[in-house]
Specification:
Blueprint (H helix, E strand, L loop, with lengths): L1 E10 L2 E14 L8 E17 L2 E11 L6 H4 L7
Antiparallel strand pairs: 1-2, 2-3, 3-4
Organism: Streptomyces mirabilis
Keywords: Plasmid
Protein name: SnoaL-like domain-containing protein
Length: about 80
C-alpha cells in the first residue's frame, strides 16, 4: 500500500518518482501448499516515467527495502502537506 510519494526530478517528458509502501506477506488457508506466517515490511519503488502520445509510460523500475517509519524522515523526505 502506498504511504508516500516524492517527485525526484521532472524535466521535459521524463519524471523520476519514488513511492514509499507498506507490505504484507504470507500464505495461509486450507489450500496453501506451505504455510508462511504473515509479516509486514516497508519498501521504496523508484520509477522513471516518460510521457508519450498515450500518456505516462514506465521506462525503468527499481525497488529497495525500507525505510521503516522510524527512520523514514531522514531517508525518504517529508510527506507533502495538504
Amino acid at each position: 500500500m502506498p504511504a508516500g510519494t516524492t517527485v525526484r526530478s521532472y524535466a521535459g517528458s521524463t519524471a523520476d518518482v519514488s513511492v514509499w509502501c507498506s507490505t504484507l506477506f504470507g500464505l495461509t488457508g486450507e489450500t496453501a501448499a506451505k504455510k508462511i506466517p504473515l509479516t509486514t515490511g516497508w519498501l521504496t519503488m523508484t520509477m522513471t516515467l516518460r510521457w508519450t502520445e498515450d500518456g505516462w509510460k514506465l521506462a525503468d523500475f527499481q525497488q529497495t527495502d525500507g525505510p521503516k517509519p522510524t527512520d523514514a524522515g531522514a531517508k525518504f523526505g517529508t510527506a507533502p502537506q495538504l
